[in-house]
Amino acid sequence: MLVSFGYRPRGSLIEKLDPRARWIFSLLTLFSITSFWDARFLAFFFVLTLGQYALSRLTWKETSRAWLMIFFLMGMMILINTLLTSGGTIAGVITGGRPVFQLDGTIPLVNWPISFSLTLERLWFALCQVLRILSISLLFVLIPFTMDPHAYGSTFKGMGFPDKLAFSMDLAFRFVPTLGRDFSTTLDAQRARGYEVEKAEGGIFTQIRKMAPLIVPVTMNAILSGEDIVNAMDLRCFGLRARTWINNLRYQWYDWLYMGLGVILLAGSVILKVVFNIGGFWMPF
Amino acid sequence: MLNKMFKKELWKFGTREVVFAAIGAALYGLLGFATNMLQIPSAGNVAIRPAIVIPMFFGVAFGPLVGLITGFLGNIIADLLSGYGFWLWWDLGNGIVGLVPGLVAGMMVSYKGVKDIALAEITVVVGSALGMFVASVSEMWVSGLDFAAAMSMNFVPAFVSDIVNGLILLPILMVAYSAVVARSGR
């Protein structure tokens, strides 16, 4: 099986930034976005994250899979949470409202009462949800496509993670292609013995049990080769001293500027929310 | 036996744990991605995600930290391979699914005894419940879901899928691993 990460160098502006700065900015902005239910602030974050996304030079073809999943989940969330549930409050944010559509009745045979009310406030809240979810998605969807997976180890080490944990992360990304090849070999070998994973036979339990001839050999082989790697690393005295990393990350002035923007956004959001009590749900009409 | 049980350092993170956490994460990421690609037929709305057994098994076999990293990092890798972006709260939830079974790693004797398997199966249920609860509740904060919607839309499908896969596949992996343990003497 050909296993490849979505990353490829595109020479975009966003790739020039230090990966640590990008993680820090993304997390600070995530916390800033989640401080608001006011559409005006959410629209600001939407434009900001859309601008960053535009700088990444990603194409629809590359990211369509992720976006289709996000749109589907977002649609489901909004439909179920905001429009269909007619309870008193949504997420503790809004209560009641002015109805634009009302449906009252009973379910035949069982006589269960139905009362559904779609209010103007619910519709506006749905728009806020769209802005909020899309802003967060724009922030995080681009990371796998614009950040080299082989730099994750040194990135997390540079962010203060312990040496061993960062090395474990680095090692995991290096194991993926090898394990992908092993998986492919095992699948072919089992198929040669008559194993049919795609065959729709039996219930869900049978389908899951049918995965064992694939998962067990791949996992046990990986563990056995892992024992050899442990021995080799122990022989080389792994973990006795602090490690050095081949790709040495160094902040540039624009990284500080980028992180500074993240700090300002978060500080501003906290001040607006806590000190001035601004940013809660807001209705324009 | 008890002596051996307590001698195992549950929270140790040495060379062995570094390597097996990396292998577990790579395996979970890869199998999660590969089983999506294979389009395994499933019943109703319950998606078959058999790879979830990997963090549970690595937790039981190598301890809570290995289980945590396997679930957390493996989910990141699966999303990277599938091009789904980063969803840190779901990564954390998957990490907990691996961490909880790891808490009984020190109590494992043979990996194929009824007591060992029963203990591991209990942690599968507890770990899946806790991990998916944390991830689902995070959606309330991120997406503005109310509690009922977060539970019905996120928690229930993810929890059911995780425990069904875990309860069936974990004992199979544990029995296979007992042979590996006997062979390597670790």
3D architecture notes:
The complex is a heterodimer of chains A (285) and B (186). Chain A has helices at 13-16, 19-33, 39-55, 60-84, 120-141, 143-146, 152-158, 163-192, 204-209, 212-235, 253-275, and strands spanning 89-90, 94-95, 99-107, 112-119. Chain A is mainly alpha-helical. In chain A, a hairpin with a 3-residue loop joins strand 1 (89-90) and strand 2 (94-95). In chain A, helix 4 runs antiparallel to helix 5 and helix 8 crosses helix 10 (212-235). Chain A is flat and about 70 Å long. Chain B is an all-alpha fold and 186 residues long. Chain B has 7 helices and no strands. Chain B has helices spanning 2-7, 15-37, 53-62, 64-82, 88-102, 114-143, 147-184. The longest helix of chain B is centred in the C-terminal third of the chain and has 38 residues, at 147-184. Chain B is globular, with a radius of gyration of 16 Å.
Which labels suit this protein?
heterodimer; A: mainly alpha; two-stranded antiparallel ribbon; 11 helices; 62% helix; flat; B: 186 residues; mainly alpha; 76% helix; 0% strand; globular
Layout of SSEs?
The complex is a heterodimer of chains A (285) and B (186).
Chain A: H1 13-16, H2 19-33, H3 39-55, H4 60-84, E1 89-90, E2 94-95, E3 99-107, E4 112-119, H5 120-141, H6 143-146, H7 152-158, H8 163-192, H9 204-209, H10 212-235, H11 253-275
Antiparallel strand pairs in A: 1-2, 3-4
Chain B: H1 2-7, H2 15-37, H3 53-62, H4 64-82, H5 88-102, H6 114-143, H7 147-184
- Write down the Rg of chain B: 16 Å
Widest beta sheet: strand line-up of chain A: 1-2
Largest sheet of chain A: 2 strands, antiparallel
Oligomer category: heterodimer
β-strand amount of chain B: under 5%
Derived structural class of chain B = mainly alpha
Quote the distance from N terminus to C terminus of chain A. Answer: 56 Å
Rough shape of chain A?
flat
Global mean pLDDT of chain B: 85
Roughly how many Å is the radius of gyration of chain A? 25 Å
Name the chain pair whose interface involves the most residues: A-B, 83 and 73 residues
Helix content of chain A: 55-70%
